[in-house]
């Protein structure tokens, strides 16, 4: 997935290629994008550019007619062929600037976190347009240089040409007639919301004890996601992807504690219900009503004798 057009292969150690065993933020981000792509891929022939070790291509193949996974790293393609053996998935070694497919082969091109790893942006888009059928669809993500690098003061050595959000949008609009821009960031789960004029949601935030701000769409998204076509775009909705990492020992322990607490609370509630029922039964029973005068006399006698004992003392 995160592989370059021109850089040499072997980037696995950098963490730039997503692997299914990864946990945390990177998993939420990548899996959310591929879940969205899967919805757009239903019944289509798909190209997954920079497919990495093949997991994302396999996810898309659950809905697509056929998926071509292309990556420049031979070892990644070898792994993908051995790991994801599906009749409708084909893994090919190749560059995004020279895609090894014939003209007009695919209905949908998927490219996630790839464009920032190389300089050949124009060549990449020209190739995407070449392999897409008329009216085909592109879904592509790119980190926003402002949010990903500058605000966070984070320099990724494997990102050789990052784009600001407006630069990315203008690049996509140069090649496609219709473009919808979405923003993605991790809140308590990965969230992708329609941005700007397309957005129906709003985001409220207060930073540095300043006044509360309201922004349409998602505030300060770290990633930009473009959906583009020369035909009308499909209906897009804001979405949230949430995955609980059950393999995390701390989360498992917390889940056990929560389950025990829930069972304990349920048991206590049952005890309280039983006690209330017993009290109600006693209060309304025949013997309780019959002996009420005797209890009153006994209580009065105890009160009188208690007063006498205090006076004698």
Descriptive report:
- The N and C termini lie far apart (91 Å).
- The chain folds into two domains: 232 residues, Vaccinia Virus protein VP39 (Rossmann fold, 3-Layer(aba) Sandwich), CATH 3.40.50; 63 residues.
- By secondary structure, the protein is α/β, with parallel strands linked by helices.
What global shape is seen?
elongated
Largest sheet: 9 strands, mixed
Stretches with pLDDT under 50, minimum 5 residues: 1-14
CATH level 3 topology of the largest domain: Rossmann fold
Number of strands: 11
- Which class best fits the helix and strand makeup? alpha/beta
Top CATH class of the largest domain: Alpha Beta
Q: Describe the oligomeric state of these chains in a short phrase.
A: single chain
At CATH level 2, the architecture of the largest domain is: 3-Layer(aba) Sandwich
Name the strands of the widest sheet in spatial order: 3-2-1-4-5-10-6-7-11
The end-to-end span amounts to 91 Å
Average pLDDT rating: 82
* Total number of helices: 9
Helix content: 25-40%
């Amino acid at each position: 997935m995160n592989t370059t057009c021109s850089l040499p292969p072997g980037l696995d150690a950098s963490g730039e290629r997503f692997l299914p065993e990864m946990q945390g933020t990177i998993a939420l981000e990548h899996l959310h994008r591929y879940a969205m792509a899967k919805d757009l891929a239903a019944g289509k022939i798909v190209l997954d550019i920079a497919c990495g070790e093949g997991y994302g291509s396999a996810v898309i193949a659950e809905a697509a007619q056929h998926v071509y996974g292309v990556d420049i790293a031979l070892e990644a393609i070898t792994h993908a062929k051995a790991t994801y053996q599906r009749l409708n998935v084909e893994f090919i070694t190749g560059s995004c600037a020279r895609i090894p497919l014939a003209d007009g082969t695919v209905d949908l091109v998927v490219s996630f976190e790839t464009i920032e790893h190389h300089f050949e942006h124009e060549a990449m888009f020209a190739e995407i347009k070449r392999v897409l059928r008329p009216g085909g669809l592109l879904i592509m993500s790119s980190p926003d240089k402002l949010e990903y690098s500058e605000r966070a003061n984070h320099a990724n050595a494997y990102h050789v040409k990052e784009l600001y959000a407006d630069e990315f949008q203008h690049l996509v609009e140069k090649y496609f007639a219709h473009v919808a821009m979405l923003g993605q960031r991790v809140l308590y789960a990965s969230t992708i919301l329609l941005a700007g004029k397309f957005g129906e949601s709003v985001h409220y935030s207060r930073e540095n004890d300043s006044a509360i701000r309201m922004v349409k769409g998602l505030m300060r998204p770290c990633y930009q996601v473009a959906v583009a076509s020369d035909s009308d775009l499909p209906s897009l909705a804001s979405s949230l992807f949430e995955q609980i990492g059950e393999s995390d020992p701390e989360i498992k322990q917390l889940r056990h504690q929560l389950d025990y607490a829930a069972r304990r609370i349920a048991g206590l509630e049952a005890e309280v219900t039983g006690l209330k029922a017993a009290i109600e039964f006693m209060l309304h029973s025949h013997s309780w009503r019959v002996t009420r005068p005797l209890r009153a006399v006994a209580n009065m006698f105890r009160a009188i004798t208690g007063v006498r004992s205090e006076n004698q003392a």
